[in-house]
Amino acid sequence: MTAAIGISAVRKTFPGAEHPALAGVSLDIAENEFFTLLGPSGCGKTTLLRIIAGFETPDAGELRLGGVAMGTTPPNKRSVNTVFQSYALFPHMSVAANIAFALEMLGRPRDAIRARVAEVMRLLRLEGLGDRRPNQLSGGQQQRVALGRALASAPKVLLLDEPLSALDLKLRRDMQIELKRLQAETGITFVFVTHDQEEALTMSNRIAVMRGGAVMQVGGPAEIYDRPADLFVADFIGEANLMPAVLVDRKGPQGRFRLTGSDALVVANDAGTIGVGEPAMLMVRPERIGLGPLNAAPCDVGVIALRVDALAYSGSDLMLHGALADGTRLRARLSGAAAGDAAVGDTVELIVPPDAVRVYRP
Amino acid sequence: MKRERAPRLMTGAGVVAALTFAFLYLPIVTLVALSFNANDLTTIWGGFSPKWYGVVVANDDILRATRNSLIVAGTASLAGTAASLAAALGLAGAGRWERTLAEGLLALPLLVPEIVTAVALLLTFVIVGFPLGLTSVIIAHTVFCIPFAYYPIRSRLAALDPALMEAASDLYASPWQRFMRIELPLLAPGVLAGALLAFISSLGDFVITYFVAGPGATTLPVYIYGMIRVGVTPEVNALTAILLFVTIAVITVAFLLGQRPETDQNGGIES
Ligand SMILES: Nc1ncnc2c1ncn2[C@@H]1O[C@H](COP(=O)(O)OP(=O)(O)OP(=O)(O)O)[C@@H](O)[C@H]1O
Ligand SMILES: [Mg+2]
Questions:
Q1: Phi and psi (nearest 5°) for A119?
Q2: What residues 121-160 of chain B have any CB closer than 8 A to a CB of chain A?
Q3: Burial A317-344 (b: 16+ CB within 10 A, else e)
Q4: Can you tell me the mean pLDDT for B220-236?
Q5: How many Å apart are CA B86 and CA B74, to the nearest integer?
Q6: Can you state the angle between helices B96-111 and B60-92, rounded to 10 degrees?
Q7: CA A333 from centroid of its chain's CA atoms
Q8: Is B170 helix (H, G, I), strand (E, B) or coil?
Q9: Is residue A159 within 8 Å of A82, Cβ to Cβ?
Q10: Ligand 2 centre from B162 Cα, in Å?
Q11: Cα A42–A240–A300 angle (5° rounding)?
Q12: Contact A102 B172 (CB under 8 A)
């Protein structure tokens, strides 16, 4: 099956810019996929969307939509619609006219347009708002109109550039669910841009993590979260404990590391290509760390003694903060019950399971 | 406590301001007042009467001049506005330098002494062998209408969100459909304001018209000039006052159009 969107070695440097906005991006996005571009501000997410939509042409590389090379095909000849970050609703037209716009441009018969507009308004829960102007709508309603306008002509691909960033948290959560529902119901390929990693993890089939115009990792949410390809991805997605260490010895793929911050030994099931005596950076998610028995021997493998300097309680769990001897900070997320009666000032022993440790070259 | 001396606090500043306004508006107020004078002698008040307006309306020469004025102002403002709209859209995509240069050249006719433009235009018509008449007046007016129409359109265009154009293209509008359905309706208030400003500047023009109008192409200002060579009559006052009222009305409409926020317009073609 050909990919809905095929991007190969796409480069783009804006005139006068020092660094390329896209430095050779290759991605295949499948049909029906909810695909997310995730990355810090300025990493090229919008530029990539604009190239897919046809507002920019790549300096080099190729874009294929449904297997057809796009070249300089203008936006109005691509079966791709965009939900703009600013919504860009036509201010002089009613909600219904906004939603009908694409269908009219495609020359659909009037009756069909009317029926489709009604259907889209029902799908997006906009019934009764058809005669309003965009400036008479709330932010969430405007957002749904923008979505409806882009969906009305049933494009093959829908591009969404941070469509939820202007909404408050509650509305945002609702719209996230609604977007997922829409994507499932319509079967349209969604390319979604966000710099909110939590949003990316909850919504996507696959995520591409970008940085400085390049794709650092592509994968499903669990893969990206659990097996980040490098330190940048590890740090950008979720919370990460990063601990400098040196490999002491290894048994096959398994390696035993001594933390530079304390004398604790930590075992990693997959030590990668690190050689004995070489430095490494270990990464452990806070929720993978457990609280050990207070009488465990200090040299036990995978046990780190930590002096607690702050506790943050957040309802369902407790975040325990502390520092190793060299100042390396550690966080452990403990369920309320597991936390026991740890208090600030106590020294606790943290257990790091070997399968939770990821090893990177520093 | 010593009060700081600021130019606007100096005694006399208020007086100067008052005098300025008096010199600007007293003659106009006087003109309007005297246009309602019942007396045949212009400067002696003989009670209120609108009779001179009746005389103006009954004068065939005046009606003919009015007709000419409306034809010229209508055609020239329309042509000038169309040209300005094209220029504004074209220059929006041009580079900074090209745009600054082109806009400077467009604005120059506003600053060049009108008599220079008048003589230059007359010379051109004579050299080319273009017959002087209503058409030559229309052409000349179109030229100086352009800067008046250009700036309201341009400022409206600058306030337009470029994402709207992209959205239209994205939703399958061809460039022409995008222009008709999105750009033109959103620019409409600016276009209308520009056209109205062009219209009144054409309606009131005397110098250029006087030079390039041939026989039978007498416009209102030229006709009024002819009348006062005989003497300032109450009829002239009434006619001039009418011109003033029309101008004020048109400027008010143009101003109100310019004030309208972008999100609040009905200019679009609804489906
Ligand atoms: N029209 C432009 N001209 C020049 N440089 C541009 C232009 N558009 C984007 N850039 C630059 O290209 C880089 C990528 O920009 P882009 O808008 O794609 O980032 P982004 O990932 O969408 O960021 P954000 O999360 O802030 O929206 C940035 O360094 C930006 O400054
Ligand atoms: Mg962006």
A1: -65, -45
A2: none
A3: bbbbbbbbeeebebbbbbeeeebeebee
A4: 86
A5: 18
A6: 160
A7: 22
A8: helix
A9: yes
A10: 16
A11: 160
A12: yes
Q: Which residues of chain A have pLDDT under 50?
A: 298-299
What domains are there in chain B, each with its CATH number? 12-49 (no CATH), 56-261 (1.10.3720.10)
Question: How far apart are alpha carbons A266 and B61 in whole angstroms?
Answer: 107
Say which amino acid occupies A327. Answer: G
C-beta of residue B7 within 8 angstroms of C-beta of residue B15: no
Question: What is the H or E stretch that residue A112 is in?
Answer: helix A110-123
Q: Which amino acid is at B242?
A: I
Question: Could you tell me the sign of the dihedral formed by the alpha carbons of A208, A210, A216, A221, in that order?
Answer: negative
Q: A65: Cβ–Cβ under 8 A, 6 or more apart, which residues?
A: A4, A5, A6, A52, A78, A79, A80, A156, A157
In the block, residue with structure tokens 């969404």 = A160
For the CA of A19, the nearest atom of ligand 1: 29
pLDDT band at B2 (very low <50, low <70, confident <90, very high): low
Vertex B254, ends B252 and B257: CA angle to 5°? 110
Residue entry with tokens 């507002």: A55
CB within 8 Å of B130: residues ≥ 6 apart: B124, B136, B139
Q: What separation in angstroms does the CA of B50 have from each of B38, B223, B235?
A: 8, 21, 11
Strands A157-161 and A189-194: parallel
Structure tokens given for A38: 């995730």
Rounded to whole angstroms, the Cα distance separating B178 from A104 reads 12
pLDDT at B8 over 70: no
H helix or E strand, kind and range, residue A22? strand A22-29
Q: Please work out whether the CB of residue A55 comes within 6 Å of at least one atom of ligand 1.
A: no
Pocket test for ligand 1, best of A10, A11, A12, A14 (most atoms within 8 A of CB): A14
Nearest to B142 by CA among B80, B68, B74: B80
- pLDDT category of residue B266 using cuts at 50, 70 and 90: very low
* Ligand 1 neighbour A195 (Cβ under 6 A): yes
Determine the 3-state secondary structure of A237 from DSSP.
coil
- Judged by CB atoms closer than 8 Å, whether chains meet at A75 and B166 is answered as yes
B68 vs B216: CA distance, rounded Å: 9
| Interface contact A82-B167, CB threshold 8 A | yes
DSSP reduced 3-state for A27: strand
Q: Measured between CB atoms, which of B170, B177, B271 is closest to A82?
A: B170
At which residue do the structure tokens 């070695």 appear? Answer: A9
Report phi then psi at A136, rounded to 5.
Answer: -100, 15
